[in-house]
Design a protein that fits this description.
Blueprint: H1 2-12, E1 25-30, E2 38-46, E3 56-62, E4 65-73, E5 84-92, E6 99-107, E7 116-127, H2 144-153, H3 179-187, H4 204-226
Parallel strand pairs: 4-6
Antiparallel strand pairs: 1-2, 2-5, 3-4, 6-7
Amino acid sequence: MKYSVLILVLLSFTPVVGQDGGNWIHSFDMSTFDEKGRGSAEVTVVGSSPSCFSQEITANVVDGVLEFQLFEEDHRLCHLDLRYEPLSIEYQFDEAPRLVQALRVFTDNGRSDGIVVTTRGPYILEELVPHIPGDSDLSRIFDSGDLVNVFRGGEFEDDLVGNSTWFSGDWNGDGEFDSSDFVLAFNAGQFTRSRSRAVSIPEPSMLLSFTFAAIGIVLHAVRGQRR
């Protein structure tokens, strides 16, 4: 009985095993993006005490891959530390990531300005492709919340050339947010009224205005193409 209790206690400290052998990640939570491409994430890792593991975390998107780098002191005692501490980071990107991964970076001081001794990974955390046309916040759903986002950005058919991103309404990749993006999004047939993640949305009357405005733009664009 005594040994059974000990085994149960040890199992309770067992971390969540990620893909590619990333058993150092206990949990991962990434927010949706706003119209400026701003988001945040929280990574909980094993052995993340301030004196040992991951004193710094960075995020960057390169070629569609969002990579979190967690910096760790270069000593083996960290692997015996079973405490869970959340590491939070806020970021802003112009490019919608298709893949999220994490990389362990061992340095001589546990920070990004230190000398890199070795790295481990990367470990895949989440795949975000294929992107749904219209899903500006990357919630995996195209709904009224996305319309609110892009209209809030104020870039629809503006005078600036090539200033729009996926987050602000450029879903066809031409650098502009115009009626052709709405045509692409609604023709894909993925629009839904539901909202799976909690977001801040305006009053229902304003939400309906955004929705009807978007539908009107699409109908006008389709009629223009038929002429």
